[in-house]
Amino acid sequence: MITASPSNELVRRGIIAGGEPVVLRCDSNGMPNPTAAWFYNGDLIYGTMNGATVNSAQVTISSPRTANTGVYQCFVSNGVSASIADIQRTFIVEVTEPG
After folding, report:
1. What's the CA gap between 54 and 59, in Å, rounded?
2. Which end of the chain is more exposed for a tag (fewer CB within 10 A), N or C?
3. Cα separation of the two ends of the chain
4. In which domain, by residue range, is 65 found?
5. What is the structure's pLDDT at 82?
């Protein structure tokens, strides 16, 4: 059972100035401990890809650029919970160039 879902707010939208760091968080806890999988525009992302670093509960974009614009999704699972509404968060990110 997951006792803290990523958020009650399923979709977050944001416009980010290029070059300003951003962190997308997907915190949760439960028994057994849940793990998160991150997707960018429908593709699984892991490690460091396209300037974004994935670390289980978060994605960090140190120096966002327009190539980072898109839909980021976090899916949390612990092998017990079955409700997708409790274990998903979507971020719609638009990066604008400074100046």
Report:
1. 5
2. C
3. 47
4. 2-90
5. 55
Three-state secondary structure string covering 3-35 = EECCCCCCEEEEEEECCCCEEEECCCEECCCCE
- Taking the C-alpha atoms of residue 84 and residue 51, their distance in angstroms, rounded to an integer, is 28
Domain presence at residue 24: yes
- In terms of pLDDT, which residue wins out, 22 or 30? 22
82 Cβ neighbours under 8 A, 6+ residues apart: none
Written as six digits, the tokens of 76 are 């949390």
Residue 40 has pLDDT above 90, yes or no: yes
Helix (H, G, I), strand (E, B) or coil at 50: coil
> Tens digits of per-residue pLDDT, 26-39?
887 777 888 888 99
CATH code assigned at 50: 2.60.40.10
